[in-house]
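Question: I have long wanted to understand how a fold can be written as tokens. Here is the record:
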Amino acid sequence: MSLDDRIIDGIDRKILALLQENARTPNAEIARQVGMAPSAILERVRKLEEHGIIRGYQAELDPKRLGWRLLAFVFVRGDEPPGSKGLGDELAAIPEVQEVHHVAGEDCYLAKVRVADPAALGALLRERIGALPAVRSTRSTIVLDTLKETGRLKIAEDGREAGGA
């Protein structure tokens, strides 16, 4: 049992699933679907926010329609002491970098980046990422087509560990 299983129950899990589907779902509609009063839903949502289970709400934008047509994953190898994450923080500060993951293996970080086109990717790699003092090398993989991309998590209604049987 995880710590969060002691904080949330089955109703909270249903609320989380509904909010992941549509964060703009009114409390009254959530209340109807879980069989509670809207005021109780509001209280539960506030508790989930206070405990950091709900970290925020955001609109899901279409990057291609906004001109960010190229998606790439960049493996970054750095020269920094073991356990240091200074380079990771520097990568995370670059606006085109959407995600930064500290990874095991030969590379230190995996960054998900979105740019307008191949020329913009080249400029990003040369002028921003490659210019960071701790960067030793980069390897990039350009995405040709995205079959699934989501930030949604599977919500186990029975409280079992994520990914458990």
